[in-house]
Amino acid sequence: xxxxxxxxxxxxxxxxxxxxxxxxxxxxxxxxxxxxxxxxxxxxxxxxxxxxxxxxxxxxxxxxxxxxxxxxxxxxxxxxxxxxxxxxxxxxxxxxxxxxxxxxxxxxxxxxxxxxxxxxxxxxxxxxxxxxxxxxxxxxxxxxxxxxxxxxxxxxxxxxxxxxxxxxxxxxxxxxxxxxxxxxx
Length: 185
Prior knowledge:
The chain has about 180 residues and is an alpha/beta fold. It is about 30% helix and about 20% strand. It has helices at about 15-30, 50-60, 70-75, 90-100, 115-125; strands at about 1-5, 10, 40, 65, 80, 85, 100-105, 105-110, 130-135, 140-145, 160, 165, 180.
């Protein structure tokens, strides 16, 4: 499994079975994936986001629509379903072409920083959509849901249910762990 982290350069990470199970349960709840939910999956199976797109969806009775990448939305002239999962830069590049032609309950961004201006553009182009920043899914699978613009000022989200995250101070001194609901320790 590979993740780009904050560098943009793929690097290997270990994602345990426990991490995948906790992530699948928490992400489905956060995003609203249930029986029959259609999820557009355009991420390589070598990257951590594919676990969300495929395993989470199938484990909850959803339908996975596999495309080579999200650029397929521009080629087809739009899409209608439950969840679009993509990196911010890709959707930003095609949003003007497909704005008003995408109908989705949620857009989940991961893989790179999410600019506030893009959140506004997505909400304008897809009325009523929930925008979720899932940046940092590997390891403890962090989550940060964006309901209000001021939330964008927070650098980190909070851990998923049953998970904890340990952050290091810039001088490499550990900070107290952030704990999600239901975590132990």
